[in-house]
Amino acid sequence: MSRQQLQKLSDLVEQILSMSMERRRTMQLVMEQTDVRPMVEALAAQHRLKADKPVEVNLDMPDDLRLRTDRNHFANIMSNLLDNAIKYSETQAHITITARRTAEGVEMRVEDQGIGISKDRLPYIFDKFYRVPHGNLHAVKGYGLGLYYVKTMIRRLGGEVTAESTPGRGTIFKLLFHDENQGTTG
Predict the structure, then answer these.
(1) Which of 17, 31, 111, 147 has the most CB atoms around its CB within 10 Å?
(2) Taking a C-beta distance cutoff of 8 angstroms, is the pair 132, 167 a contact?
(3) Is the pTM of this model over 0.90?
(4) Quick check: 68 pLDDT over 70?
């Protein structure tokens, strides 16, 4: 458990440093072909182990889907989205992650059945230090940097992210990694 917490702290420090470097425009990305499914499976397994509630993660993606990306930042992006899906689910987390190659590139969706985000708060979730007020969820910790990091890094990786949500039904994050940065499947 200590090792997991140390890794989480290390990941947060890396994210903060990366954002700091991003502001200076000096960050160098290491773009390489990455097998999506094994990476997402490993991240899902890590999050299931450290969660304080039952977590079910369903993957709907081809085994041979590859993405040209910076592995560390891609892993941090997915880890942030998984972490939020778990944190903002009530007694158990049900998460579905889909990925497909389209004419535009690789599209991914991270969908949860958590508490959701109201329509008036949704435009701000990617802002630096923004946290959606959830009156009775004092146990949810964070600094409002996770989704800011997700959006910043996806842009740096040549993609975009959007979110849809319905209070009481869950949230869907849609990621698109544009084709000019992508390799092929297999």
Answers:
(1) 147
(2) no
(3) no
(4) yes
